Amino acid sequence: MPSLRLRISLPALATLALGLVAGAVALVFFFAPLDADQGLSQKIFYFHVPIALTAYACFGWGAWKALLHLWKREPGADLESYVAIHQGVIFGALTLLTGSIWARASWGVWWTWSSNQLVLFLVLFLFYCAYFMLRFSVDAGPQRANFSAVYALFGVALIPVSFLAIRLASDFIHPTVFTSAGPQMSARMFFTFCVCLAGMLALAATLYAVELSGKRLDLRLRELREALA
Amino acid sequence: MSYTRDVGALARKDLLLELRARDTLPAMLIFVIATLVVFHFALPSGSSDLASNGLLWVAILFTALLGLGRSFVPEREQGVLDGLVLAPCDRSAIWLAKSLAVLAFLGLVEVVALPAFAIFFSGIDGTTVAAVVLADLGICAVGTFLAAMAAAGRARELLLPLLFLPLAIPIVVGGVGASVAANSGRYLAFLALYDVIFAVICWASFEYVVTE
Fold first, then answer.
1. Pick among B163, B165, B206, B210 to test the A interface (most A CBs inside 10 A)
2. Would you say A150 and B205 are in contact if contact means Cβ atoms under 8 Å apart?
3. Most buried pick, A40, A197, B9, B44, via CB within 10 A?
């Protein structure tokens, strides 16, 4: 496996994430122009969309690790896949939350079925919650690792299929009334958006690294304890 | 050729067991009729046929869940699965045979349920029947696969619906779309696409579910 071993120490990664997120918040409020249509409430876009994209990245990374587990039998890939999906679910929940707030601010309702992205995230959220149920109802071991990996692979197939399904469903359930894609982004908006996205990805990577090292430590401790007993 | 023979033998075993014990099919039949009766009272009078069309899909999905929940229980309880895994055949044959058996049960139930729906609520057209057939394929393929996983868990009856329903949402979209929307061809094509994608994934990865 010719893997790119890009080793960044955890404190450095955390500092980078902190700097990027702080910079992103500053840019959102002091640099990006106010949206002509939606005004201040449009600013949540700079958090909502990067969080959603980060969640996708986490799910994708989890599925990739799941594939490595099944295909190459890479040791530790199961744990990495689980941690990535865990982060994905956290960011997915935040997507639902910020999306709901945005819907309230711009359309006056807390939930709208006509926002395809939001519905897709609800489906994915349910799907990945079931992933945890599956994982915790099977005893730790190779079987659990296989189940989790296979289910994670189902997830990446479900994302495009559900997306298509929700597109199709909006034809007979609701004609699309709102389009969240506003006018073209200006360069300053786009720059802010990119910094926000980088910040969210760095934050997710930091959380991923922290949780992974914690889980590994936990595993090691358990091994030592069993060795002593 | 031996692959087909393996699948045939395994599917016949399931059908024979059902013929002798009769514990799944009658339950599914009673359940689907009872569900339709419940729907009659759940729909306020004067609600449109479109609403009842949607409920037909809920009934099919839940009835399938009932059958799927039972499908791998004998295997796990009697340790048949270990024997099957040891047998010199492709492991995906186990999944395919079980899917076919569940498909047969579901098909038989629908032979009763669809006319009953037509009598109780509104008529059923050819497109709906086609959609039901396509949806059954997807439900059985994905559901059998998940049932095999759920049966190994601690809370198997609890687990299967949780695993299955998020994956079944596209089926419901395709099915309801085909029965109520004007351009039903798109929805039938979508159902076929779903069947192909998930059947391939299940077929390719079932080995990992039964082996370590």
1. B163
2. yes
3. A197
* Nearest Cα to Cα of residue B79 among B212, B184, B190, B210: B210
Per cent of chain B over pLDDT 70 is 100
B52: tokens are 């009842």
**pLDDT tens-digit profile of A137-153?**
888 888 899 999 999 99
Mean pLDDT, residues A57-78 taken together: 91
* Beta strand extents in chain B (DSSP E only): none
The one-character DSSP state at A39 is: B
| AA identity, residue A84 | A
Provide the ipTM.
Answer: 0.87
Q: Tell which residue, B70, B73, B64, has the closest CA to residue B152.
A: B73
pLDDT above 70 (res A50): yes
Q: Is residue A20 part of a domain?
A: no
User: CA gyration radius for chain B?
Assistant: 17
- Number of domains forming the structure of chain A: 1
What Rg, from alpha-carbon coordinates, does chain A have?
20
**Which chain B residue has the Cα nearest residue A133?**
B159
- B contacts of A123 (beta carbons < 8 Å): 166, 169
Tens of pLDDT along B111-160?
999 999 998 888 788 889 999 999 999 999 999 999 999 888 887 788 99
How far is the alpha carbon of A96 from chain B, nearest alpha carbon, in Å? Answer: 16
Residue A9, in any domain of the structure: no
Distance CA B22, CA B206 (A): 27
* CA B173 – CA B206 distance, rounded (Å): 26
pLDDT of residue A102: 87
Residue-range domain boundaries for chain B: 2-210
Domain that holds residue A170: 42-175+186-220
pLDDT at A178 over 50: no
Quick one: how far is CA A4 from the chain centroid? Answer: 22
- Asked whether the beta carbons of residue A137 and residue B154 sit closer than 8 angstroms, the reply is yes
State the Cα torsion A194-A195-A196-A201 to the nearest 10°.
Answer: 90
Q: Indicate the residue of A130, A157, A172 with minimum beta-carbon distance to B197.
A: A157
For B151-185, the DSSP string reads HHSSSHHHHHHHHHHHHHHHHHHHHHHHHHSS-HH
Per the rule left: phi > 0, alpha: psi between -120 and 50, beta: everything else, B46 is: left
Q: Helix B184-210 vs helix A142-173: angle between axes, to the nearest 10 degrees?
A: 170
Domain membership flag for residue A156: yes
pTM of the model: 0.87
Residue A136: enclosing H or E segment and its boundaries? helix A116-137
